[in-house]
Design a protein that fits this description.
By secondary structure, the chain is mainly alpha-helical. The protein has two domains: 1-57, Arc Repressor Mutant, subunit A (Orthogonal Bundle), CATH 1.10.10; 59-204, Tetracycline Repressor, domain 2. The protein is 75% helix and 0% strand. The radius of gyration is 20 Å and the shape is globular. The relative contact order is 0.10.
Length: 208
C-alpha cells in the first residue's frame, strides 16, 4: 500500500508539476516576499524534491516570469468580471475596469508588485511580454471607448490613458501600503458606497 501511495503521489506531481509549482510559488511569494523567494522553498511547499522545478523552470527567474505572466492574465480577468457586473455604458465600463484593477491589487498585493515593480521577472520573455501588452491594450481600449476615439495616434487619448493608469495604479499602491487618507474611511463604507467613491476618483483622471 505504501509503495502504491508513493507511486500515485509521484505520478500526480509528474503530471501536473508545473501548475503545482506555480501554485506553491504564489503562496511562497505572498508569505515570504520577493527577497526571500527561492526555488527550494517552492519545491518544499509543493512537496517535491529540490531538483524537481528544473524540469519546467531553468531558474528562479524563469519561475517568477511564468508567475508574473499568469498574474497579468488573472488581472485582466478580474477587470472583465467587474465589467460584466456593471452597466453597459462606456462610463460604467471604464470605472468597473478601474475597480477591477484595484480589486486585483488588494487581493494579490505580492503578485501585483512582482508584475509591476520587481525586476526579477524577464520582461522580454515572449509570454510575459504578450500578457503585459494585453493588459495595457485593455486599458487603452476602455479609454478609447469612453472617449469615442478610434484614432490610435490621438495625442489626447495617449494622455488620458497615461493619466488613468497613473491614477488607478498609484491609488492601488497607496491602498496596499495603507497610505491613502481614504483607506480608513473606505473600510467603513458599504460596497456600493466604496465603489462609488473609488469610481469618482478614477474619473477625475480623465477630467470628469
Amino acid at each position: 500500500m505504501a509503495n502504491t501511495e508513493a507511486e500515485n503521489k509521484k505520478t500526480y506531481h509528474h503530471g501536473d508539476l508545473r501548475a503545482e509549482l506555480l501554485r506553491a510559488a504564489e503562496e511562497v511569494l505572498s508569505e515570504d516576499g520577493i527577497e526571500a523567494f527561492s526555488l527550494r522553498a517552492v519545491a518544499k511547499r509543493a512537496g517535491v524534491s529540490h531538483g524537481a522545478p528544473a524540469h519546467h523552470f531553468a531558474d528562479v527567474r524563469g519561475l517568477l516570469t511564468a508567475l508574473a505572466a499568469i498574474g497579468y492574465e488573472r488581472f485582466v480577468e478580474t477587470q472583465i468580471d467587474r465589467q460584466r457586473r456593471a452597466a453597459p455604458d462606456a462610463k460604467s465600463q471604464l470605472t468597473a475596469s478601474g475597480l477591477g484593477y484595484i480589486d486585483f491589487a488588494l487581493e494579490n498585493s505580492a503578485l501585483f508588485r512582482l508584475m509591476f515593480s520587481s525586476q526579477k521577472p524577464d520582461k522580454a520573455e515572449q509570454t510575459l511580454e504578450a500578457a503585459a501588452n494585453s493588459a495595457f491594450s485593455k486599458l487603452e481600449s476602455d479609454i478609447r471607448s469612453y472617449r469615442s476615439s478610434s484614432d490610435l495616434h490621438d495625442s489626447t487619448l495617449t494622455k488620458d490613458v497615461t493619466s488613468a493608469w497613473a491614477m488607478v495604479h498609484g491609488l492601488a499602491e497607496l491602498m496596499i501600503a495603507g497610505r491613502s487618507p481614504l483607506t480608513a474611511a473606505l473600510d467603513q463604507m458599504t460596497q456600493p458606497d466604496r465603489d462609488a467613491t473609488l469610481s469618482d476618483i478614477i474619473l477625475r483622471a480623465v477630467g470628469d
